[in-house]
Amino acid sequence: MRFFAIVTAMALSATMAQAQTAAHMPGATVAKPTVVKSTRVKEPLVEFEMMTWPEVKQALGDGKTTALFYTGGTEQRGPQNVNGGHTLMAKATVKAIAMKLGNAIAMPVLPYTPNNASAQLPGTIGLTPEILASVIERVSEEAIVTGFKNVILMQDHGGGTNVYGEVAKTLDAKHAAQGIHVYFCDEVYAKAQGDFGNWLDSKGYPRSSHAGIPDTSTMLYLGGDTWVRKELIPTALGDPATPPGQRGGGPVDQSARPSVNNGITGDARRSSVALGKMAFDMKVDYAVRQIRGFLGMTPNSTRPQQLKH
Fold first, then answer.
1. Distance between the two ends of the chain, CA-based, in angstroms?
2. DSSP states along 270-297
3. 182: which residues sit within 8 A by CB, 6+ positions away?
4. How far apart are CA 221 and CA 208, in angstroms?
């Protein structure tokens, strides 16, 4: 056996030596390795924190002079959803809005908004409305110094809703004479959420608000089992949904009684990826439409309209 092993090794060495010699002989043809070119189209850079300063400067020069500030939030979202849901969804949403607008840059998402921590449901870290106002005013002013001509404020969490409008109004009055504007895009949150809730009602889905079908479905669509504990969805039943006229609207879901205090308001058990895509697309479409209106843009355009004098 040892003899045969030695003979085999010698034969293999001889074969390799012959191949190397042949490759270096005059006129020898050597096969070149095949290079496979990527067919993936490179995405435009629209996220400020993923750009270098020369790339930001170039983007501003190319007309991307609208800064999108979208705030998220850190709070418990029921047993099935991760605490950073607002921020995670906000990052995906503001990027999609910037991509669709074509003339905007998505600024870093603020992960804290007005809320209160709880020892019973330990997933929330919040700010006060006053702190939020100071932060978004400061970052808006910084964006203006950077070179942005329009600043859009948006939210993914209901806390401090009036703050955005107040800051936008104050800053717009301050800078409008220089052709710089600050707007509050409220439809991405309130109107899109309300209309989606009404659609769920019309299709017989149980009403829910916090950590319910809209939240859980959107997180399923965007983050899958990384953002949502899928095995807990079949038991994702919480306190009764809010009555008509309040956030969530619709009739109280009697199947959600009695009170369980698990962070869910309503019933999230029928959450799905398909519903999540619908909710996400609505938010993006509503935001793009409203922002284009602010900027005097025609539908599907990346340039402001030429106003008639």
1. 98
2. T--HHHHHHHHHHHHHHHHHHHHHHTTB
3. 140, 150, 151, 152, 153, 167, 168, 171, 172, 175
4. 18
How far apart are the C-alpha atoms of 27 and 30, rounded to whole Å?
A: 9
Residues of the chain with pLDDT under 70: 1-41, 242-258, 298-309
Q: By C-alpha distance, which of 221, 185, 171 is closest to 97?
A: 185
CB 75 within 8 A of CB 157: yes
Closest CA to 223 of 37, 60, 21, 86: 86
Task: Return the structure tokens found at 302.
Answer: 């990346």
Tell me how far apart the alpha carbons of residues 235 and 237 are, in angstroms, rounded to a whole number: 6
Homologous superfamily assigned to 48-294 = Creatininase (3.40.50.10310)
Quote the pLDDT of residue 297. Answer: 73
* Nearest of 205, 164, 200 to residue 184 by alpha carbon: 164
Has this prediction a pTM greater than 0.85? no
Q: Cα(253)–Cα(205) distance, rounded to whole angstroms? A: 10
Pairing mode, if any, of strands 104-106 and 181-184?
Answer: unpaired
Tell me which residue of 256, 257, 248 sits closest to 200, measured CA to CA.
Answer: 248
Buried b / exposed e over 192-211, threshold 16 CB at 10 Å, is: bbeebbeebeeeebbbbbbb
Task: Assess contact for 244 and 253: CB atoms under 8 A.
Answer: no
Longest dimension (CA), the chain: 98
